[in-house]
Amino acid sequence: MTGFYSSPLAAPDPAAVTRPSVTDARLYLCTNARAEQGDFADFVRAAYAGGVDIIQLRDKALQAAEELELLAVLSEVAAEHGKLWAVNDRADIAALSGAPVFHIGQQDLPVAAARTLLPAGTAVGLSSHTQEQVRAAAGAGTTDRSGNGGAQARAEAGGAQAPAEAGGAVDYFCVGPVWATPTKPGRAAVGLELLRYAASLHTRVPWFAIGGIDLANIEQVVAAGAQRVVVVRAITEASDPTSAAQALRAALGQGTSAGSDGVTAGAADQTGLGGQGVTA
């Protein structure tokens, strides 16, 4: 395999790698189908090689058949590297493709409804843009500094997608956009303060900062309390996606122990969502 790699690399043996949980993920990439470049398989392979944990195919221009074809490629490459991949918006496509991760927005299919269409074990993620939405997504995994837990979070959620008692809880959520981004035109930036708020909740539910994040500003994101990020252009527009991913991964630091989630990584919790620990 050449492509973006500086030298040919053999694909990892799938039997020798273990697919991580969403909890283990630090670096999440959203990409389109790269129709102009015509290098989708090479690109996602290069991104995974650089340390990306999850790749989401997000391309509104794709027909269902085209998306399923590309997802088959993404699934194969992800398996080579022992990594995760995600489908955006469409639960039917996620179910048909066998996606391990499914992501929705606040105005999309409700989480509980999506779970009725998805195979058991599919991780479901949700975008959040306000304090109320963040608290709702954090759900029963939340204990903030006042001692309030998930029940009050749901009561305060208002119009947000509050996790339902049966099937509505999310497996991860995204907080942003931190900065304005052309990938979400018309969506106002939330700034770093919403990241600080999310970090203050000490939730067991993994969360990712998203929106305009790149190597020039990722240190600000980490300083605000985020341990996980979603990026787009920082890797999709890089001349060397592997090196770009490696640099972002290095900027995130090592591990998730007793960090901004307020949890100790690797300790089993009661939800079975991949080994989150308890509030530190």
UniProtKB/TrEMBL annotation:
Matching CDD domains: TMP_TenI
Positions contributing to 4-amino-2-methyl-5-(diphosphooxymethyl)pyrimidine binding: 56-60, 88, 127, 184
Superkingdom per UniProt: Bacteria
Pathway: Cofactor biosynthesis; thiamine diphosphate biosynthesis; thiamine phosphate from 4-amino-2-methyl-5-diphosphomethylpyrimidine and 4-methyl-5-(2-phosphoethyl)-thiazole: step 1/1
Residues covered by the Thiamine phosphate synthase/TenI domain: 27-141, 164-235
Enzyme Commission code(s) on record: 2.5.1.3
GO cellular component, one term: cytoplasm
Low complexity composition-biased segments: 151-160
Coiled coil spans: none
Listed SUPFAM superfamilies: Thiamin phosphate synthase
Keyword tags: Magnesium, Metal-binding, Thiamine biosynthesis, Transferase
Molecular function GO labels: magnesium ion binding; thiamine-phosphate diphosphorylase activity
Transmembrane segments: none
Record family assignment: Belongs to the thiamine-phosphate synthase family.
UniProt function note: Condenses 4-methyl-5-(beta-hydroxyethyl)thiazole monophosphate (THZ-P) and 2-methyl-4-amino-5-hydroxymethyl pyrimidine pyrophosphate (HMP-PP) to form thiamine monophosphate (TMP).
Protein name: Thiamine-phosphate synthase
Organism whose genome encodes this protein: Arthrobacter terrae
